Amino acid sequence: MTILALLCVLILTGCSSEDNAVVNRQKSIVILYDNDVHCSIDGYAKIAGLRDAIAASDTAWSAAVSSGDFLQGGMAGALSQGEYIIDIMRNVGYAAVTLGNHEFDYGGQRMKDLLAKLNAPVICTNFFDMGASRPYYAAYIIRSYGSRRVAFVGVVMPETMVNESYSFYDNDGNQLYDLRTDDVTSLVQTAVDEGAQPGSRLCGAAVALGRGETCAGHFVA
Questions:
Q1: Whether residue 178 has pLDDT greater than 70
Q2: Where are the domains of the chain?
Q3: Rounded to an integer, what distance in angstroms lies between the CA atom of residue 35 and that of residue 212?
Q4: Residues 32-59, mean pLDDT to the nearest whole number
Q5: Which of 96, 113, 149, 171 is the most exposed, fewest CB within 10 Å of its CB?
Q6: β-pair type (96-97, 60-66)
Q7: What is the pLDDT of residues 6-25, one digit of tens each?
């Protein structure tokens, strides 16, 4: 399976040494993520339960995020064209959700309609309606955990326009959506720069790439 989606996580704190000393005495932040679930519905209760157990222990802040590829892949998805999965996911309480290539399997408009029911912020720096000057979804979202702020930045892999090309054009061959293949890196960097607002600095970054892989340091804040 090719790389499907990215979710960049930036942990932001104040720059002063005094502020950093306070941060060091605070609870940790645990971010749980899922990706490539493909309609394996039993996992949602597990990730929500683990997040809630961590929060209840009062030893760390916790959040759950999704890196995409949830709408397609099992009977529940096929029978409902993804709607049964959204019904489950809206009860998880995600801090952020981004797109994988399989979110486009039932068409771009179907994806939009389903995600509007999700009850969680969807973020993606590079999914544009054709001709639009701004992405359809917010590029990032900032969440606060204690006195620290965490910026989640979402992006879908540009290869999706090839793998799921049928979702990007109408029956007459007119292009409907664009993933900004030529400038996706700069779009993500811009989102990182905006997320790391003046007076804050980047303390750590992780990018979920699919297959449980993680890498850091691709973008600078």
A1: yes
A2: 5-215
A3: 8
A4: 92
A5: 171
A6: parallel
A7: 555 555 544 445 555 454 45
- CA distance readout (Å), 185 to 113, 123, 125, 192, 194: 27, 16, 10, 11, 14
| Encoded tokens for 193 | 């720069």
Check: CB of residue 120 under 8 Å from CB of residue 97: yes
Residue 146 main-chain phi, psi, to 5 deg: 65, -135
Residue 28 has pLDDT above 60, yes or no: yes
Identify which has the larger pLDDT, 113 or 24: 113
Residue 161 buriedness (CB in 10 A; 0-12 / 13-18 / 19+): buried
Residue 102 scores a pLDDT above 50: yes
In whole angstroms, how far apart are CA 62 and each of 32, 47, 127, 187?
Answer: 7, 11, 28, 28
Contact between 101 and 156 under an 8 Å Cβ cutoff? The reply is: yes
Place of tokens 């702020």: 149
Least confident of 53-62, 108-117, 159-168, 206-215: 206-215
Mean of all residue pLDDT scores within the chain: 82
The CATH fold of domain 5-215? Purple Acid Phosphatase; chain A, domain 2 (3.60.21)
